[in-house]
Amino acid sequence: MPFPLPSFDPLPVWIAAAALAALFAHAALAKWADLALFEQQLSVYGVPASTVPALARLLPPLELSTALLLVAGPWRPLGAGLAAALLLLYAGAMGYHRWRGQVLDCGCGGEPLPVSWALVLRNLGLAALAGLAASGLGARPMAGVDMAVVVAATALAALLYAAMNQLLRHRAGGRGLRSLFGSSSS
């Protein structure tokens, strides 16, 4: 290795790795569930038509492999590197189309979510989280309670991620936060 990775306590490193693994596994499975829709989303991004079918079939297994590598002990840094690369690629593609003023679905998997600067920032933040997931582990061994914390933190991260996406969907629909909590002007 050309330079040593910084070492951190293993708990936050494994939380970051597990949260990203859950995200990539969900994204891969959602894309696999509707490959035709994913092909349409790739086409809208301007992917050459001749490569769309191959790319639509390549990205889900790549995302699932990334998820598996993130939780596979010694392969975690490689998985984190793949996660960061994919997240930066996706952020770049979304940012490019957002900068051009195009409104399109992010293609993230799941319900439609229009591309926004918030999604670009989200992916950049997740890429930074992948940096933590790639870090070396401190000398402290993980205990059973640590693994329980990783599981709970991953579940919480998944809920927060889903809540953020739902808020962005409401915002894109012109409803904003007031529609979620009631209007104060009634």
Distinctive features:
two-stranded parallel ribbon, globular, mainly alpha, single chain
Task: Provide a descriptive summary of the structure in words.
It is a single chain. The protein has 7 helices and 2 strands; from the N terminus they run βαααααβαα. With 186 residues, the protein is mainly α. It has one domain. Strands 1-2 form a two-stranded parallel sheet. The C terminus is likely disordered.
Work out the number of β strands. 2
How many separate domains make up the residues?
A: 1
Which overall shape is indicated by the principal axes computed on the Cα atoms? Answer: globular
- Sheet with most strands: 2 strands, parallel
Strand content: under 5%
Short description:
This protein has one domain.
Please write out the topology:
Elements: E1 7-8, H1 10-33, H2 35-44, H3 52-70, H4 76-99, H5 117-133, E2 136-137, H6 144-172, H7 178-181
Parallel strand pairs: 1-2
Helix pairs in contact: 1-3, 1-5, 1-6, 2-3, 3-4, 4-5
